Every structure is written in structure tokens, then in C-alpha cells.
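Fold in C-alpha cells:
===
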Amino acid sequence: MSEMDIKQTVKEKYGEAALRVRTGGSSCCGAGASCGTADPITSNLYDANQAAQIPEEAMLASLGCGNPTALAQLNPGEVVLDLGSGGGIDVLLSAKRVGPAGKAYGLDMTDEMLALANENKKKSGIANVEFLKGEIEHIPLPDNSVDVVISNCVINLSADKDKVLCEAFRVLKPGGRFAVSDVVTRGEIPPEIRKSVLLWVGCIAGALEEYEYRNKLSSAGFEQIDVEPTRIYRVEDAREFLSGQGLDVDATAPQVDGKFLSAFIRAVKPLHGAEKTCCGPTCCN
């Protein structure tokens, strides 16, 4: 599957998810197998206190695999960028934490999600928020302009993760922090999962192996890299997110037991030598 095929499929499915929320439905992480059920990846990520701070539609549109706003260090007055901001839940929560002197940007390529996010911004009354249209491989912000980059189960959807990490490094200020939730893998993954576009949209097939993620961050120039598991998916979870994907679930689920996990991934752009803004085999194209 080509990079363009993946990007178009992701765009279509996330656009459909936004429309479901705007018409009174709910969203889910993927192509439809888990919609309307307790999705093992996207469920129970935010506590009641956080839910009370934002519009219900922002919560319903959440397609994440973690809660970066709860785990990331955010200080008053800082500038935060959320890659793949969707309905805006993490942007709105971040904006409240950095306060009126700070700012939270959300970046998304899907018109339907951007429309939903701006509706949620208006309903929330939070002013220090701006949603930008664009791709996470081409961030429309200047060099050294952001204190913290967050993301919630989106980087794994990109077919050019080197470029995403290079762009995150570029826009961060020296000393800036990378603090994202993402799906990663441990060990060998069945090839039929890796090749499925629908499972890619479902946050599974595009996941990097844990040490590959570390190596890509290091190649981008980051230091102090840490991968902290927040959820490890077992056989029962695998049955849930593999159901309806054209796979032999009984045969495949045991093969992925414990091999997919949601993780909180941290890294820091160094204070010195941070003039590097291009890296990897695809970043300079």
C-alpha cells in the first residue's frame, strides 16, 4: 500500500468519524469493527474531572490510545502543539493547563475534524486555542516556536514517521519536549496485520516496534528518550480490534497477545546543537 493510499484512507475514515459525532453518534478508533462497543484501545482514557472541562462532542470524537495531557509536563505560559488533533480534546485540555499566557495549537488534515474542533472551541469558551489545517509531515509553524509537542495515537498512522519526528524536532524550541501517546509493538507481528489498510486506520498496523521508535527519535536529534507502557493488549483485546477485519481471529489473536501496547513516549530537544532541522532518509525530499 502506498503512502498516498494510507493517507487517503485515514482522511476518509476520520472524516466519517467526525460526521458521526456531529450527527449525534460516537467515534471509534478504526474502520468500524469496534464502533458502539467498549473499544479496548480508545476507552476509559479521561477521568470525570477532565470530561467536565470540555464539550461532550470533544470527548465523543476522541480516537486516542492514551492521555498525553495527563502525563505531559505543561507549564503556564507555554506553547503546545497537538499533532493530529481531531475533535480537539487534548488541545482544549492543554490550553487550560498553560493558561491565558500560553497557547495550544491543534493540527489536523481532515476538514470534518477541524470543523468539529472549532465548534468545540466555541462551546468551551477557551480563547488561547488555534486549529491549523495541515499534515503532520509538514507542520505549518516556524522553527523553534513550540515548547511541547503532544499527540494521541496519530503518529503510528503516518507512512513517513521519520518526517513527522523531524518536523516535531524542527518546531520545538531548544529544550522543548516531545510527549506523545502512541501504539507500539514488541516482537514479531503477523504480516497479514501489517498489510491491512483498515487496521492501519484502526491504530494497529502502522505501529512501530518499541526500539525502532527509540532509534527514529534519536536519528531525528532527540535525547532523553523514554517509552513507558500504559496499556498492554491481551488475547481478549486482540479479538475485539481484529474482529470484522477479514482475518482468522482465532488463529491471529493468540499471536499478538502482549505484543501491542499503548505507551507514553517522551524525548527532549537538546539545548545545544539543536540547529539540526533535517534528518533521516526522507526528511530532505
Remarks:
- The CA atoms of residues 70 and 150 lie 11 Å apart.
- The first strand starts at residue 79 and ends at 83.
- DSSP finds twelve helices and eight strands in the chain.
- Residues 25-38 have pLDDT under 50 and may be disordered.
